[in-house]
Amino acid sequence: MSVHIGLGIDVGGTNTDAVLIDLGDRKVLSFAKAPTTRDDLSKGIGDALKRLDRIYFPRISLISLSTTLATNSIVEGVRRRVCGILIGYGPEDIPPNWRKRSFSFQEAIRSRGMRESLSISIV
Hints:
- The chain is α+β, with helices and mostly antiparallel strands and 123 residues long.
- It is flat.
- The termini are far apart.
- The strands form 2 sheets. Strands 3-2-1-4 form a 4-stranded mixed sheet. Strands 5-7-6 form a 3-stranded antiparallel sheet.
- The chain folds into 2 domains: 5-76, 2-Layer Sandwich (Nucleotidyltransferase, domain 5), CATH 3.30.420; 85-122, no CATH class.
- It is built from 4 helices and 7 strands; from the N terminus they run βββαβαβαβαβ.
């Protein structure tokens, strides 16, 4: 068994899936499914995570989060505000017409006099 475990989370329109994968051997170690809670997505994610074998949690070295909710909203004709989280990108990487509506953690960190260790922008 590898020392590197990957955690994958997929928030779908009906269910939220979570999986732990041995990244070296490419084997599924634990899989769980829970109903998606649209009023608070963290509840469904938490429920799926609680159903995984927690013995592997300390060795998680990669986390991947995906969702089909944006696609479902387009197909269903539902219009809602959109938020994109860009990790590793700064304000200069955001298209000019989006900048007026964006918030950069870099700016917040600098304004508080903290050392910047991660660049995250929310669009």
